[in-house]
Specification:
Length: 124
């Protein structure tokens, strides 16, 4: 069973930065896609960014493009999300997940295992 533990959230002022981490366990993730997602109060969970197995290919939602950077360390089974120029609209619980193919990553709503997430709150 896949286990995902997110950390690094907190309270930050608008314009500030945070770096989220997610440690994955339960199987090898060296050949996996990793992604970040978020869910704001009263809203559906949404996609934020994903990265391929080698770390050479990344993809971002339009709302975070240019401000957030996803990266991964295969040796540590860890994926990161560097968040800069944060806005109050970025306030949400942030989750990571993993998929074995780009198709599965794009169909992320069907992913079975989710961590508890980490809360990010951006004050204006």
């Amino acid at each position: 069973q896949v286990q995902l533990v997110e950390s690094g959230g907190g309270l930050v002022q608008a314009g500030g930065s945070l770096r989220l981490s997610c440690v994955a366990s339960g199987r090898t993730f060296r050949n996996s896609f990793m992604g970040w997602f978020r869910q704001a109060p009263g809203k559906e969970r949404e996609f934020v960014a994903h990265i391929n197995w080698s770390g050479e290919s990344t993809y971002y939602s339009n709302s975070v493009k240019g401000r957030f950077t996803i990266s991964k360390d295969n040796a540590k089974n860890t994926v990161y999300l560097q968040m800069n120029s944060l806005k109050p609209d970025d306030t949400a619980v942030y989750y990571c997940n993993t998929a074995l193919s780009i198709q599965a990553m794009r169909n992320w709503r069907a992913l079975r295992f989710w961590g508890q997430g980490t809360q990010v709150t951006v004050s204006s």
